[in-house]
Design a protein that fits this description.
alpha/beta, 2 domains, Rossmann fold, 11 helices, five-stranded parallel beta sheet
Length: 309
């Protein structure tokens, strides 16, 4: 028969082992990214490299900006990321520089083939990579919550999602209207590339009370001037940024006065980073656009035009 002292030691050892096991399980974090990959970290990420501006903003919005050790050269928001190490672009990052930063997690925000090649190379180097590419607000909410889990800030992620949802509700309440103005969103000119259904811009337009005239289920859609005239948008939005540096005055473009929105002066210039980067600031894009559409929608209602909800 084992002595009482030995039994006590055995019981204590089992108890300690149980506590240690629970601590390890509690520290381990697991999520599935948008590519269906299972991301498992032994503990919340402490050194993160972000390969996309919207993800950089998300990490900072949940209070984890101090965990970022590397961002892309175009990341400038929030201001504190401007002094972070720049690792190149999301399509062409400097892999040696990333390795030198010793990240325990890399976050990618693009589904383009070139970016996937980067992801595969990083994985070959033994680095955990999670891919998030939200195209709707529901997808954005999921992305925020999952990134928060990976950072060990789950509650902060949930609070951020609830805050954004509350702002969306408030925006609808402050600027109520029932007709949906038809909207087209120019991504680049003169190639005439527009935001399609599989673009966060599409959901920003919907959340703002509008309707995207581009119906193709793609992120970007090439359109002809003739098709724009046929679709007859009420509002013509032009993004300004790296993808659209040559956004000339629309009224001075050849034949663009054939578009009713242009003739009526319903032209809105917006920041590419605010509208085309899915992230916490996407709600600001909705607020800006809803305020702009409010008067136009009410005029459509009074004249019996527009698209009913």
């Amino acid at each position: 028969m084992p002595s009482k002292r030995l039994l006590s030691v055995i019981c204590l050892s089992l108890l300690v082992a149980s506590f240690l096991h629970q601590a390890i399980v509690h520290a381990q974090v697991t999520v599935f990214d948008d590519a269906g990959n299972k991301i498992v970290l032994k503990s919340p990420a402490k050194r993160i490299v972000s390969l996309y501006g919207g993800i950089t903003e998300t990490v900072c919005a949940i209070g984890a900006c101090n965990k970022l050790v590397g961002v892309t050269k175009r990341d400038s928001w929030p201001p504190e990321v401007r002094n972070k190490t720049k690792i190149g672009t999301h399509m062409r990052p400097n892999l040696e520089l990333i390795m030198g930063l010793k990240p325990d997690l890399v976050l990618q925000g693009s589904a383009r083939p070139g970016s996937q090649m980067v992801v595969e190379k990083l994985k070959e180097l033994g680095i955990q990579v999670a891919i998030f590419n939200p195209t709707t607000f529901d997808g954005l909410f999921s992305t925020i919550e999952k990134i928060a889990i990976l950072c060990g800030y789950e509650e902060k992620g949930q609070r951020l999602v609830q805050h954004i949802k509350a702002r969306l509700r408030k925006c609808r309440e402050e600027y109520p209207f029932h007709k949906q103005p038809k909207v087209i969103f120019e991504v680049s000119y003169p190639s005439l590339l527009f935001a399609g259904k599989r673009n966060i811009v599409n959901d920003i337009i919907l959340q703002a009370g509008g309707k995207n005239t581009v119906k193709k289920d793609k992120k970007f859609v090439r359109y002809s001037l003739e098709q724009i005239i046929i679709d007859d948008p009420d509002v013509y939005i032009i993004q300004k940024g790296p993808m659209n540096r040559l956004s000339l005055d629309v009224a001075k473009r050849p034949n663009f006065n054939a578009i009713r929105a242009v003739r009526e002066g319903h032209i809105l210039l917006v920041d590419e980073f605010l509208f085309s980067r899915p992230g916490p600031r996407s709600v600001e894009a909705v607020e800006l656009l809803r305020r702009y559409l409010y008067e136009i929608a009410n005029n459509l209602e009074s004249h019996g035009n527009g698209i009913s909800n």
